[in-house]
Amino acid sequence: MRIAVIGAGAVGGTIAALLDRGGHDVEVTARGDNLEAIRANGLALSGAWGDHVARVEANERLTRAPQLAVVATKALDAASALRDNAEWLRGIPVVVVQNGLHAVTTARRVLRHSDIVGGLALFAASYLSPAVVAVTTDGSTCLGNERNGLEVRYAADVLGAVMPVTTTLNFAGAQWSKLIVNQINALPAITGLSAQDTIADRSLRRVLTRSMREAVRVGIASDIRFAKLQGLSNGALRLFGALPLWIGQVLPLVMKWRMGSTPNPGSTLQSIRRGQKTEIDYLNGAIADAALAAGTSAPVNAALVALVHEVEGTGVFLTPEQVVARIPAG
Ligand SMILES: NC(=O)C1=CN([C@@H]2O[C@H](COP(=O)(O)OP(=O)(O)OC[C@H]3O[C@@H](n4cnc5c(N)ncnc54)[C@H](OP(=O)(O)O)[C@@H]3O)[C@@H](O)[C@H]2O)C=CC1
Ligand SMILES: CC(C)(CO)C(=O)C(=O)O
């Protein structure tokens, strides 16, 4: 099948390589050094799902009509990447694999005549250098949209043949559950530590637990029913939001255990390391926005957004002590 992957970074590069290994005719879009390296050497995948070099067609924009498209840019690049390729995406199912709350709505706004499927990657991948990606933690990709139509089934059948895929009837709730997990992204981006080392640090783990609890409480204030995802559930998250902080710290420890021992920088620190703007406004920033809309506040999440933007600007990581001093007291 002809499949397009727009944004061949950590997640898109992994999915493109798996589709190529599964015998599909894959065209990827990429930019700069990444595009040159994919054209010259192919896309090299390693890690939890084995090694494969995918000799895929690579261009800055699509050059032909696919039968299915996967969009895997960061949230801040999604609208422009979709606009650039809109002529080829008309009338086909488009899967947007993206953290945050806006993947489906943004894609629908740009592509009015395509069937949009949301995707949440529950695996972890690193974009190590141009055209080189590695899966650091195994995991499925959860697909859905609010109507759970035929396009979800179609995308799940095609992608599910080459990688682990699940579907959900509560995609909005799944986005929120994933957003709680993505509270882990900010602290590595601020300190330069891996997600596992962040959680291992007692003072950072406390900050993470506070931001996760705050995010859960904002979700509850926004009338969200959290979906089952990565061992989390609506009941478990609501309980986590209510438990004393010291007990709540068990949840980040479980997340650390699930991530395994291969250091996971998280996708936000990877952007910082490449000197790029991060999607933090769509992660902790989405919590701060939702808090405002629900008539409450999210001071820990707002402070984390500000610190990530500071590191984006200075390129200088903060020590755990500096981070703790900059987070409002609980
Ligand atoms: N990495 C991970 O482990 C996980 C990531 N996610 C989520 O998946 C999404 C993708 O993340 P990730 O793969 O890490 O991000 P990456 O930054 O590694 O990859 C995105 C790629 O898209 C490219 N891109 C952006 N705009 C365009 C465009 N207009 N045309 C062509 N290429 C473009 C970028 O190019 P350039 O480098 O030139 O900007 C980059 O190579 C994010 O929402 C992230 O939060 C979810 C779970 C796990
Ligand atoms: C959960 C996590 C941290 C996995 O890498 C992620 O979603 C990300 O990196 O954006």
TrEMBL record:
Residues 3-145 form the Ketopantoate reductase N-terminal domain. The keyword Disulfide bond does not apply. Pfam families: ApbA, ApbA_C. Pathway: Cofactor biosynthesis; (R)-pantothenate biosynthesis; (R)-pantoate from 3-methyl-2-oxobutanoate: step 2/2. SUPFAM superfamilies: 6-phosphogluconate dehydrogenase C-terminal domain-like, NAD(P)-binding Rossmann-fold domains. It catalyses: (R)-pantoate + NADP(+) = 2-dehydropantoate + NADPH + H(+). Its EC number is 1.1.1.169. InterPro entries: 6-PGluconate_DH-like_C_sf (IPR008927), 6PGD_dom2 (IPR013328), ApbA (IPR003710), Ketopantoate_reductase (IPR050838), KPA_reductase (IPR013752), KPR_N (IPR013332), NAD(P)-bd_dom_sf (IPR036291). It comes from the Bacteria. It is an enzyme of class 1 (oxidoreductase). Keywords: NADP, Oxidoreductase, Pantothenate biosynthesis. Residues 170-312 form the Ketopantoate reductase C-terminal domain. Gene3D superfamilies: N-(1-d-carboxylethyl)-l-norvaline Dehydrogenase, domain 2 (1.10.1040.10), NAD(P)-binding Rossmann-like Domain (3.40.50.720). Belongs to the ketopantoate reductase family. Catalyzes the NADPH-dependent reduction of ketopantoate into pantoic acid. This is 2-dehydropantoate 2-reductase.
